[in-house]
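Hi there, hope your week has been kind to you so far. It would help a lot if you went through both lines with me. No rush at all, and the record is pasted right below:

***
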Amino acid sequence: MKIKEVCEKTGLTRRAVRFYGEKGLVSPQVPEGAGNDYRDYSQEDVQRLLLVARLREYRFSVEQIRELLEHPERMKEIVSGQRSLLETEREELDSLLEAMEKLPLSQISSLTGLSAALEGAGAGPGRPLRDQSPDYSRLEELTAEERRQTSRTVRETMERLERRKRRRLLAAAAGVLAAVLLAAGLAKLRLWWDEPLGLQVTYGITATVTAAEYSDTYQVTMLQMELDADPATGEKTPVVRSMPLDGGPEGTATENAMVLHYPYAGLSLFVEIPRNEARDLGLLTPEGNLDQEKAAALVWSNAIMAKKYARIFYLFH
């Protein structure tokens, strides 16, 4: 059967089905003479994918699932290990919830007060070891198909940015012409202040996308991410942040290639702010450029500013 029917039967996305195939969890047939992208899935493949999806719900890694499939005699060992890990995480969460229940919320009116109250509520279990020292060895190497997909994604993103740049240049040219007819000097000054200033920042932090929701107001898809460090401050403290992607309800190349609950090795953020707004926000350097540190900290710490000025440029495997 074709991948569309497999998606309907399993509830998985095309990306997830291809991903599990590339990782060797299913082995669909490639009919003779068919293109490289065509796969013929059997009923056995569908059952295998349903099993994989169910195991992923219980937070089994791809490597654990492969071990279960290839070495079923190790099932007790692998399942017991995963259960122990989940029990440890549950104990940590119970400890945090107990501490937070002690917070006198009615008496807290500032972040400083919240910090003091959290400290007084009692120490939590501490940051997990995996957050203090992320285990990047668990990230598997990209397959040939993933490398092709990554290349396509980057190319499509760059083409989209180039088209946007051309549109801005055309709009700026039209504005200059109108300004010359009215008041050349004043119009040129206004255009200079309206000019968008952009920068790209890359973070080598583990990012796990836990949810994606489209915003009609801002015409973007908001990604909720668990990060192993705070990009706003640089502190090695796990945080949950939301950051937008460009695109309408149909999604973007980056969004369509994204896998929920997959630990990405890093991300690249694009920030663009008009010069006059950057000036009002105190984000300009003495040379008149956008201050990278201040601009990045602003969009990471303020959700409204993120929706207006920032976009996820790329998620690194």
